[in-house]
Design a protein that fits this description.
alpha/beta; 8 helices; seven-stranded mixed sheet
Amino acid sequence: MAGEILTSASIKMKSTKKKIVAIVQARMGATRLPNKVLMKIGTKTTLQHVIDRLKKSKLIDDIIIATSKKERDKEIVNMAKKFGVNYFVGDELDVLKRFYCAAKKNNADVIIRIPSDEPFIDPSLVDEGIKMHMTHQNDYTSTIINRKLIKGLDFEIFNFKVLEKINLLDQNPSSREHVTAYMISYCQYSSHIYFLVFVFN
């Protein structure tokens, strides 16, 4: 009987577990520093450093490299294949749509947004952020509001349901290029969405 109870509890926990996905946005056409994701630091490219560090996370279930449909970005797709992570190819400038489609395709419940130019991203810090996000039942968790960390360690965490709503509500091409600009603008109560925000101290 005890065995049956434990089995039942395990099944329930498994069915309610949220899928946590890190989405790394990457493209070759950066205006300030083109091809930066393939520039080498030591023996590894910037993107490879990001991938290797995220693989050390104990809480991330999947890593997706979200790039564009441009011919020049096929090299990024090849790198994702080489290092054994998933990839998604979408709109180059509508990065919000790219994130939404990548998350939906991969059944993400919680998304961690990671820039591809953060080769020193700290997996243990990301895990702490995930724990805080889940514990406080946040819709959006960020290190960039009232920043306490040095640049290069930042990340944002948000729930798919929020991403889905923002994808419908945000019609500004400029903010869609930056994915979370609309979220940050409405991180207090709005008539559309209430964001619970926990900021690292």
